[in-house]
Write a structure and sequence with these properties.
The complex is a heterodimer of chains A (264) and B (385). Chain A is 36% helix and 14% strand. Chain A contains 9 helices and 10 strands. In chain A, strands 5-4-3-10-9 form a 5-stranded parallel beta sheet. In chain A, strands 6-7-8 form a 3-stranded parallel beta sheet. Chain B has 385 residues and is an alpha/beta fold. The chains are: A alpha/beta (264), B alpha/beta (385).
Chain lengths: 264, 385
C-alpha cells in the first residue's frame, strides 16, 4: 500500500473476470429501495444480489429497475430445492438480462433455510460448464469447499449463522479452515448482522462480506450501511496488518519474564 | 347421509401416514391443558425454532391475552427475519359454485337455492385477463366441491389457462387423490390449499351433514397427498368460530408443523378466516371470535411457525388486515369477488357469492395503504420450475 496507508482503491480482489474494490455485497433477503440506496451510497457496494424470482415480476416489485447500470447484478437461485431447479432459475436469470454471475442457493428446508451442499456442488458443476461465474452459498465444510473448487466455483460463500439471524460468526472455526485451505475468495454470507461481526470476519482474512438483514432491520439504514463499510475496511486493514497473537489463557509479558537468568 | 365421518368412501385414496393420528392426539392433550402468564413468558423467551407444542399452546391460551403486546413485538421480529417488509398479493377466482356437500355454514351448500354456474374456458380466460390487468401476478383458483361439475380435468384446464396470465397459480378445491394433484401440477398449479374447517370431530360431524366432505380424515390428509403429487407447497386453515377457535388454531399449527417436519422442503401457508353470519343461516350457533382473539391466533401462528406464509381474509376490515400484515401476516388478497363470472363483462354464466367481504379495495388502493405504513407490495416472488 502506498505510504503504508490503506487504500480501498488499491486493495482490489478478483471474482472470476471481475476486478472489485468494495468488499461489501448486498444480499437479497429484504429488498427495499432505501436499502439499495444505502448500500450503494453509504456502503459503496459494487455487487447487489437479487432473487431471480423477484426479477421475474413485471410490476414495481421488480428489483431490476431500481439498480444502476454500473452495478454488478448477482442473481440468486432462491426458491430452488435441488440442482435442477437452481440451474433452470440461473438460466432464466441470464435470459432476463441479469448477466453471467449467479449465486447458488438451494434449500430443502423452509424452517432453517440451510443450504444443501450436495445439490449445490451438482449445480455448480453444471452452471460453471455453461459459462456462469458461480458463487455457491454453502454450509462451511472443507470437503464440500474443495469439491466446489473442482466443480468450477468462482468463490465459496460459507454461512456465518442461519440466514436473517444476525447471530454473527457461529461457524467461525470452520470458516477459518476454509481460509487456511481454499485458494478462492471466501465470502461470508448469512448471519452477519452487526458491523463488529463483519469486522471480525474480515480480520480473519475473508475476502468480502455479504449482508442484508443487519442493515435492512436497522432504524437508520444509511448510518448502518456506512458503519458496515467502515467495519469491513477496519477488519481488512487489521488483517493486512497481521494482528498480534491473542492468548487463550494467561498473559504474555512484553519483556521476557526469564530475562534475569545468566548464561552459565 | 354417510353416517360415519371417519370412514373413507371407496374412491378415496388412503396413504401411509400417521400425521392425522398425531393431530387428533395433540388436540386431545390440548383440551386438558391450562396455562399461567409465567408459562407464556417462558414460551416467548425461547427461539421460535426451539418451541414445542406446549409453548405454542401457551401462546394460544387465554393466559396470553394480557401479553398480546409482547407477542406482537416478538411476532414482528420473526416476520422481519423471514419476510422483511414484503406483502404478497393474490386474488381468488371462483370458476364454479356447484357443490355436493351439505355444510351448514357455507353459502355454496348444495341445499341452498342460489344461482349456480360454471365458467367455460373462454369465460375463465376472460376473467383472468381482467384480473391480470390490475397488476396481479398470482391467482388462487376455487370451485365449489363437486367433482361431477368441476372435475379434476376441468380444474386442470383452468390451471393451464391461468399460466398464460399469472406467474403463480394455486388451487383451493375439494380434496383429491395423489394422481389428481399430479394432474394439476402438470398443468401449471403447484400450491394447494385445503381448509379443514374444524379439527374437532364432534363439531365437524355437527356441521357437515352430507357429501364427501363429511369424511373428515380424507380431508385432513389432503395436504400430504398434494405434496406426494409434486406440489411445491400447501395451505392450511380452520374456519375460526365453528368450534373452540383456540383449539382449532392449535390443531392448524400442529398439522402444519408435522407436515413441515415430514416434508421440510414444502412451503407452508396458513389462513385464518373467521366465521361470519350468513344470510338465511341465523339458526347456526357458532362461537364468535373477537378481533383481539383473532390477532392473538395470528401472532401465535407467526411465532411458532415463523417460516409460514399467513393470509388474512377479505372477511376482515381493511384497517385490521393492513396492521396484521405489518405485524405478522404476509399475504393479502385484493379485488376479491366470491361470485362466479363477476370480474369481466359479458360472461353468460354468473353465479352467487360464497360469502360477503369486508375489504373491497382495489389492488392499487391496498398497495398504497400498505406503502403508507412502510410495507412493500410484491406481486410475485416465485418462479414455476
Amino acid at each position: 500500500m502506498k505510504d503504508n496507508l490503506y487504500s480501498v482503491a488499491q486493495d482490489s480482489w478478483q471474482l472470476g473476470p471481475l476486478t472489485l474494490h468494495s468488499r461489501f455485497i448486498l444480499g437479497s433477503g429484504k429488498f427495499r429501495l432505501d436499502l439499495i440506496e444505502a448500500a450503494l451510497n453509504q456502503a459503496e457496494a459494487e455487487i447487489i444480489t437479487l432473487a431471480v424470482r423477484r426479477a421475474n415480476s413485471a410490476g414495481e416489485g421488480n428489483i431490476l429497475q431500481h439498480i444502476p447500470e454500473h452495478i454488478h447484478l448477482l442473481p440468486n437461485t432462491s426458491g430452488a430445492r435441488n440442482a435442477e431447479e437452481a440451474c433452470r432459475i440461473a438460466r432464466l436469470g441470464r435470459e432476463l438480462g441479469c448477466g453471467d454471475m449467479v449465486k447458488i442457493e438451494i434449500m430443502r428446508d423452509s424452517k432453517y433455510l440451510l443450504p444443501d451442499n450436495y445439490e449445490t456442488i451438482k449445480a455448480t458443476e453444471i452452471l460453471a460448464s455453461e459459462g456462469f461465474i458461480v458463487m455457491p452459498y454453502m454450509y462451511p465444510d472443507l470437503n464440500v469447499a474443495r469439491d466446489l473448487v473442482t466443480a468450477g466455483a468462482a468463490c465459496v460463500m460459507p454461512l456465518g449463522a442461519p440466514i436473517g439471524s444476525n447471530r454473527g460468526l457461529e461457524t467461525k472455526a470452520f470458516i477459518q479452515i476454509l481460509l487456511n485451505e481454499i485458494d478462492l475468495p471466501v465470502i461470508v454470507d448469512a448471519g452477519i448482522g452487526k458491523p463488529s461481526q463483519a469486522c471480525e470476519a474480515m480480520e480473519m482474512g475473508v475476502t468480502a462480506i455479504m449482508a442484508n438483514t443487519g442493515i435492512a432491520t436497522a432504524s437508520n439504514l444509511p448510518y448502518m450501511a456506512a458503519a458496515f463499510k467502515k467495519a469491513i475496511e477496519a477488519g481488512r486493514m487489521a488483517y493486512l496488518a497481521k494482528p498480534g497473537r491473542v492468548l487463550e489463557h494467561g498473559a504474555e509479558a512484553s519483556s521476557p519474564l526469564t530475562g534475569f537468568l545468566r548464561n552459565e | 347421509m354417510n353416517a360415519d365421518i371417519m370412514t373413507y368412501l371407496p374412491a378415496m385414496e388412503k396413504i401411509d401416514s400417521s400425521i392425522k393420528e398425531e393431530v387428533f392426539a395433540s388436540i386431545d392433550r390440548y383440551c386438558e391443558l391450562t396455562f399461567t402468564e409465567q408459562q407464556v413468558k417462558a414460551a416467548l423467551a425461547k427461539d421460535s425454532v426451539e418451541m414445542n407444542l406446549f409453548d405454542y399452546a401457551a401462546l394460544l391460551s387465554p393466559a396470553a391475552l394480557p401479553l398480546l403486546e409482547q407477542m406482537a413485538e416478538r411476532a414482528l421480529v420473526e416476520r422481519k427475519r423471514y419476510f422483511g417488509d414484503a406483502v404478497y398479493f393474490f386474488s381468488p377466482l371462483y370458476i364454479a359454485n356447484y357443490c355436493e356437500n351439505r355444510c351448514l355454514y357455507c353459502g355454496f351448500n348444495c341445499g341452498e337455492k342460489i344461482q349456480r354456474a360454471r365458467l367455460d374456458k373462454q369465460e375463465i380466460a376472460r376473467e383472468m385477463e381482467a384480473m391480470a390487468a390490475s397488476g396481479l401476478e398470482e391467482v388462487l383458483i376455487l370451485t365449489g366441491e363437486s367433482p361431477t361439475m368441476s372435475s379434476p380435468e376441468y380444474i386442470a384446464a383452468a390451471c393451464k389457462i391461468a399460466r398464460g396470465y399469472f406467474k403463480n397459480v394455486g388451487v383451493e378445491v375439494y380434496p383429491m387423490n395423489v394422481r389428481e394433484y399430479e394432474l394439476l401440477r402438470e398443468n401449471g398449479s403447484d400450491f394447494v390449499t385445503v381448509f379443514q374447517e374444524t379439527y374437532q370431530p364432534t363439531v365437524y360431524e355437527r356441521y357437515h351433514k352430507g357429501g364427501a366432505k363429511r369424511v373428515m380424515p380424507y380431508r385432513l390428509e389432503a395436504q400430504e397427498r398434494a405434496l406426494m403429487g409434486g406440489m411445491r407447497g400447501v395451505g392450511f386453515g380452520a374456519l375460526l368460530g365453528l368450534g373452540d377457535a383456540r383449539r382449532d388454531a392449535f390443531a392448524v399449527g400442529v398439522h402444519a408443523h408435522l407436515i413441515q417436519k415430514r416434508y421440510p422442503w414444502a412451503e407452508i401457508s396458513l389462513s385464518c378466516p373467521r366465521l361470519r353470519p350468513i344470510a338465511g343461516q341465523d339458526h347456526i350457533q357458532f362461537d364468535p371470535v373477537s378481533e383481539t382473539e383473532l390477532l392473538q391466533i395470528i401472532l401465535a401462528y407467526r411465532i411458532f411457525l415463523p417460516y409460514a406464509g399467513i393470509t388474512v381474509s377479505t372477511r376482515e376490515r381493511a384497517g385490521f388486515r393492513d396492521q396484521a400484515m405489518k405485524l405478522c401476516a404476509t399475504k393479502i388478497s385484493a379485488e376479491v369477488s366470491t361470485g362466479i363470472g363477476s370480474h369481466a363483462n359479458g360472461n353468460e354464466h354468473q353465479g352467487d357469492a360464497q360469502f360477503d367481504i369486508a375489504d373491497e379495495r382495489t389492488v392499487l388502493e391496498i398497495a398504497a395503504d400498505l406503502k403508507a405504513i412502510g410495507m412493500q407490495p410484491v406481486m410475485n416472488d416465485y418462479i414455476y420450475v
